[in-house]
Amino acid sequence: MTAQVPTTTVRPDGALAVVDVGAHTFETGGRLPQVSIAYETWGELAPDGSNAVLVLHALTGDTHVAANEADPEAGWWEGLVGPGRAVDTDRWFVVSPAMIGGCYGSTGPASADPQGRPWGSRFPYTTIRDSVQLEARLADQLGIERFHAVLGGSMGGARALEWAASFPDRVAGVGVFSCGAESTAEQIAFAQAQVAAIENDPHYDGGDYYTGPWPEAGLGLARRIAHITYRTETEFSARFGREHQGDEDPFGSSRRPRGRFQVESYLDHQARKLVSRFDPNAYILLTEALAGHDVGRGRGGAAAALRQVTATPFVAAVDSDRLYHPEQSHRLAELLPGAGGVHMISSPIGHDGFLTSPDQIAEPLRETLRL
Ligand SMILES: CC(=O)SCCNC(=O)CCNC(=O)[C@H](O)C(C)(C)COP(=O)(O)OP(=O)(O)OC[C@H]1O[C@@H](n2cnc3c(N)ncnc32)[C@H](O)[C@@H]1OP(=O)(O)O
Ligand SMILES: N[C@@H](CCO)C(=O)O
């Protein structure tokens, strides 16, 4: 990736709609003169606007929750969203926006400033609350006064929870998967290590690398760190054990590079995959936004903030999640009025289970959507 100034690294099929939501002053004080929010939709909005469901993506996710006419490729929550699914697109009008600061169509650090230069290092520190404020403006433009439900997992769960706390009158139901009331010290620590991996890449250039080589090694390292936290020791042992990759032999030579274990090859692959689809600056911005997640900040703490939530809650977690521990979801459910417990996904793979096995909790979610 060299000498190229993309406004976005968005899917190339043109399936996205993009709206101008105006200028934005960020929570921490930065300002952009104009922000665009990209989104996809499924189903039809009822004339009274009462059937809208907002679905919010995780850290490296995009707007493509499910297949649609414009883009028939399967989406990241295909098991939950679609015709006849728990979030039935024959009934609900589903809206899925790309988060501000990312690289899937909404304004992000690779977007051009009014002079045509990428924002790069000048893109403001972004919070989950910034994301929610801008999504509310998108809702205004779509004629949606109140969402029947706002749902999301991981960073999407943080955004959903912020929606319920920031706009109680605009959210009837809230679904928070694999995310607690605030990011924990350990989650912040893992995030910092990932950010440091990118910032220490010699090509990072303070974030203004768009006309030269990109800090791909740093982004790849960040993804390796993250991906380990998204999975489990149990899965890695069962899937890879100490097997060698193909005919590579870790002990075959005293010289580097040495042959790899299978799990090393797997991580190299995960790193390459993300590098091919993500902007390192966007990775930093979204990672720091999630690390900063705290629904109780400025609201007297999590308990006080969550007491004010009026939306019907649906809290879900993965039993083997070692990053967003199920205990955090239990605590969230205790604090959210009416939650009545956690819907548990049973999976050996850890955090990513909310993406790979959401169908396990489809029925209770369908029920909750009946409110
Ligand atoms: C292109 C886009 O727009 S993606 C946008 C949407 N993305 C998101 O929402 C992000 C969330 N999604 C994810 O994080 C992931 O897709 C998940 C968690 C849902 C699933 O993870 P995956 O990486 O697809 O699954 P898994 O861990 O089984 O890995 C499979 C991959 O590892 C590769 N692999 C397996 N073993 C090895 C090995 N020993 N060496 C090298 N590669 C290996 C497989 O070939 C496969 O490659 P492929 O993805 O290129 O086909
Ligand atoms: N694998 C997911 C996990 C983050 O919650 C992602 O890349 O977005």
Automatic annotation (TrEMBL):
Sequence positions that bind substrate: R223, D352
Catalysed conversion reaction: L-homoserine + acetyl-CoA = O-acetyl-L-homoserine + CoA
Gene3D superfamilies: 1.10.1740.110, alpha/beta hydrolase
Pathways involved: Amino-acid biosynthesis; L-methionine biosynthesis via de novo pathway; O-acetyl-L-homoserine from L-homoserine: step 1/1
Pfam families assigned: Abhydrolase_1 (PF00561)
Listed EC numbers: 2.3.1.31
Catalytic residue positions: S154, D321, H351
Keywords: Acyltransferase, Amino-acid biosynthesis, Cytoplasm, Methionine biosynthesis, Transferase
Domain AB hydrolase-1: 51-355
Compartments it resides in: Cytoplasm
Enzyme class label: transferase
Record function comment: Transfers an acetyl group from acetyl-CoA to L-homoserine, forming acetyl-L-homoserine.
Complexes and interactors: Homodimer.
Family of the protein in this entry: Belongs to the AB hydrolase superfamily. MetX family.
Protein's name in the database: Homoserine O-acetyltransferase
Native source species: Nesterenkonia halobia
